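Please fill in the sequence for the structure shown.

STRUCTURE ENCODING:
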């Protein structure tokens, strides 16, 4: 179960968690810690149904005791939240994200900077698009034998985690009529 981006922004804007801020040029980036990610995982699993004050307390408890398996809310022993399984899921997903990041390379000299699989000229977003359009991983592997099943599986994760920024590349030929071939 994934938490929609809109819900993540709502958690951040309501200051349930307080990520570090980093300035990069004109942009301010919010840096989430592993504890913040664990809390967001719990939000996706149902903590968002609790009152805001209780959610804030859960977030504080997770930050103050990063290795705790359970979080007890101050209203008494009636509400205990298991954190261990959420922490394991976050760790597993972070490992997958690291693998996805290490499999791709973006070099301006290779296909104009489009992220491609390391050692190939196969764009990662092409494989992800093929998967979303219904192609099976086996079909993609037959068409691109340089890839392995794990690379194909991680393509949608890479594209979601590292979206392309800015305008699409200019294609000056796109709006022109085709020129007839000379005989």
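FILLED IN BY: designer on duty
SEQUENCE:
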């Amino acid at each position: 179960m994934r938490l929609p981006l809109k819900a993540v922004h709502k958690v951040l804007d309501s200051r349930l968690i307080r990520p570090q801020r980093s300035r990069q040029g004109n942009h301010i980036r919010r840096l989430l810690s592993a504890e913040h990610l664990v809390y967001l995982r719990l939000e996706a699993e149902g903590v968002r149904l609790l009152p805001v004050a209780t959610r804030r307390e859960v977030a504080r408890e997770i930050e103050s005791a990063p290795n705790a398996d359970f979080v007890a809310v101050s209203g008494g022993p009636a509400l205990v939240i298991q954190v261990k399984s959420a922490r394991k899921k976050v760790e597993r997903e972070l490992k997958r994200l690291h693998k996805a990041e290490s499999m791709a390379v973006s070099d301006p000299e290779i296909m104009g900077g489009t992220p491609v699989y390391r050692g190939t000229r196969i764009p990662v977003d092409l494989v992800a698009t093929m998967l979303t359009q219904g192609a099976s991983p086996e079909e993609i592997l037959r068409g691109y034998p340089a890839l392995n099943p794990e690379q194909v599986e991680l393509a949608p994760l890479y594209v979601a985690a590292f979206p392309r920024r800015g305008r699409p590349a200019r294609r000056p030929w796109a709006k022109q009529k085709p020129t007839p071939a000379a005989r």
